[in-house]
Specification:
- The longest helix is centred in the N-terminal third of the chain and has 14 residues, at 13-26.
- The protein has helices at residues 2-7, 13-26, 50-59, 74-77, 87-97, 99-112, 120-129, 133-139; strands at residues 63-65, 83-85.
- The chain is globular and about 50 Å long.
- By secondary structure, the protein is mainly α.
- Helix 5 (87-97) packs parallel to helix 8 (133-139).
Length: 146
């Protein structure tokens, strides 16, 4: 939350807190603990990112999904069997692996947008605007299902 507010000072703290509470509620088993002791052992270009790798190690994940690929060098992550993956690559891989569930999730997400509602075309345009252009392109053949 600190970083969101630092990078986007115009974000309403009340809305951000609500988002955090919703993430806590719907996140299931996403919460990671017992990773703090690992933080000092990790060397990254930005020391402020060490907690991300430490949590990834502790939770035994295969990937860290981030737009900041340069902050998570393969030389460091390879040691732990972890890869940094851009969200666009992650999502297009998910679509290729499980198109049915992925399309259902996209449809549910678009339908949940109420302020304002988005047509399928507007939804895909929005994905492109936020850096998910490959995902939007991969979803275009399914536009009638979205």
């Amino acid at each position: 939350m600190r970083n969101v507010l630092k990078n986007r000072p115009n974000v309403d703290i009340t809305r951000l807190e609500r988002t955090r509470l919703l993430m806590d509620y719907w996140g299931g088993d996403w919460h990671v603990s017992r990773y703090h002791d690992l933080i000092p052992t990790i060397v990254l270009p930005d020391p402020e990112d060490r907690h991300v790798v430490a949590a990834a190690i502790a939770s035994r994940v295969e990937s860290i999904v981030t737009v900041n690929l340069g902050d998570f060098p393969a030389a460091v992550l390879d040691e732990y069997g972890i890869k940094a993956v851009h969200p666009d690559d992650f999502l297009t891989d998910l679509l290729a692996l499980s198109p049915g569930p992925f399309l259902s999730a996209v449809c549910a997400h678009r339908s949940a947008l109420k302020n304002p509602c988005k047509t399928p075309t507007e939804y895909l345009d929005g994905l492109s605007r936020v850096g998910l252009s490959r995902t939007a392109a991969a979803l275009t053949p399914y536009i009638e299902s979205i």
